[in-house]
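Recall that a protein's primary structure is simply its ordered list of amino acids. Everything else, from secondary elements to tertiary packing, is in principle encoded there. The following example makes that idea concrete.
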Amino acid sequence: MKKACKIMVMASVLSLLGTEALMAQRYKVGVCDWMILKRQKLGEFNLAKQLGCDGIEMDMGGLGQREMFDNKMRDSVEAAHFRHVADSLGIEIGAIAMSGFYAQDLTARDNYMALAEDCFDTMDRMGGTTVAFLPLGGCGNDWATDKAKRAAIVERLHNIGEAAKARGKRVGIDTPLDAKGNLRLLKEIRSSGIGIFYKWQTIAENGWDIAKDIKTLGAKNIYAIHASNTDRVWLRNDSTIDVPKIKKALDEAGWSGWLFVERSRDVSMVRNVKMNYSANVYYLKEIFNSNPVPAVALDSAGRDPKYVETILDRSRKATDELGITWTPSGRNVLNIICNRYFKLNDIYSERDSLKKTNRQLAEALCDSRLYRSHYGFLADLSMYITPEEIDKVKDVMTFNVVKVTYDAQCDMIPTLKEEEKQQIMAWLIEARELAMDAESSKKKHEVFGKYKGRINNYLSKRGYDLTKEREAWYERVKARGGEL
């Protein structure tokens, strides 16, 4: 009896754990590979991993005037390679897109069924993905009211839906309609193989209420979601998209599935793929799933919240420069940089306190702690970013003085020999290592000031008349409209 009770308890616990795991994956977040400039490119999976995605929406390839999609996945060997890389990185292929129909008219393609079957075959090769995306943008803007055009679309979608259903798949269409319009359209199509690939952008652009529209449409009719708006700002800054309210509506509807980021790029940095898509993925996972806790904890306990926020803002300048602020690795790098500033503050506070009783000991202990922690900081960064990226972090922490000073020296003395340039750079890099540990911006600049003096002495000994060089430089800069 006791054994039976134990088994029942264990089964209940396992069931509960299974339910929690299922709930944790109720919403999955991905990106559209054609929008991150990786359409059917092997690198899309690694990039998706860096962005913090659960998966990707893979496109079938361009269509244009071709008879068939420019689809690499017809090659079973190539498809197997793609699938292997995706599996090894833990990136799912959440949907297959026929984005070519954004511009191509479905009713003008006599081989539309061959194109659909090509998509279904690709879904099988990529691990049994069950949802396809089919936009109707290429059909024009008036098909919803043009009876003949609408009838042709309905007939073709019915055929596609039935073929999809026969193969255990579903096709989500993108329309310009609201929930009521979509429900009427689905009723006309008469196939459970066809549903809606819901697009926030369409609803927002028409001024409709997304949450209300979702409730009207119903969870069973939404096969997947393009969870973004037109390019303008990131989702977190978009006043027209109330993501928490949308999540509440989806929760209440009992919906689960894929949320794919298509756009919502910040137009001030529209080409920065990592920053735009990682920011939107992070925000969606923050609202829908909660992001994984960074491996590196922020050492903020017991510190003034305003001070912590100041340090976070300062540190984000480095991760923004690398374009990784919102990526999983970026969150760890951000905390490492913040913790470095906290550590420096602690070291110098301890020194100042000890100075009151023993100045010499205070300075010695301070130097010792700075030395040890300096290399620990660099070692921590090396766990997440490359040596070249670490140099960028150092430059941000030291106001980019290395580049500014080096460029100025080369511009001032165009006749510098290569070995002289190398020596100048070597000293500036040495100065940067010391300036990184300085206690204030003033002290950082003082470190560079000493090394600039060393550089000037070196150049003078090499025969350069720095006064004349500086005067000539001033005239050149003035002639090109600048100033020193």
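The first helix runs from residue 2 to 24. The longest strand covers residues 27-32.
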